[in-house]
């Protein structure tokens, strides 16, 4: 996975940053024992996913690649190489 550009797009970075902020908000309100604030943070986490998906649909994400696989014929059906001298 290190050789690919997986996640290195504006859509991915924006979605993750928004979700991280929501996680921090939810965590802070959990420590303060405020359920309403916790759930507000969870909404922000979900909002990060929605924003990332919208940005990807706008073309700011990783382009979809078609998985065209060249099918090789099995060895039994290949014609033998002729030995010409």
How is this structure best described in words?
The chain is mainly α. The chain has a domain at 10-61. 56% of the residues lie in helices and 0% in strands. The protein contains 2 helices and no strands. Helix 1 runs antiparallel to helix 2. The two termini are 48 Å apart.
Instruction: Count up the helices.
Output: 2
- What is the structural class? mainly alpha
Largest sheet: none
**What order do the SSEs take from the amino end to the carboxyl end, as H and E?**
HH
Mean pLDDT: 81
Number of strands: 0
Please state the overall shape, judged from the principal axes of the Cα atoms.
elongated
Q: What is Rg?
A: 25 Å
Summarize the model shown:
With 85 residues, the protein is an all-alpha fold. The chain has a domain at 10-61. It has helices at 10-31, 35-60.
Features of the shown structure:
elongated; 85 residues; mainly alpha; 56% helix; single chain
Please write out the topology.
Elements lengths: L9 H22 L3 H26 L25
Helix pairs in contact: 1-2
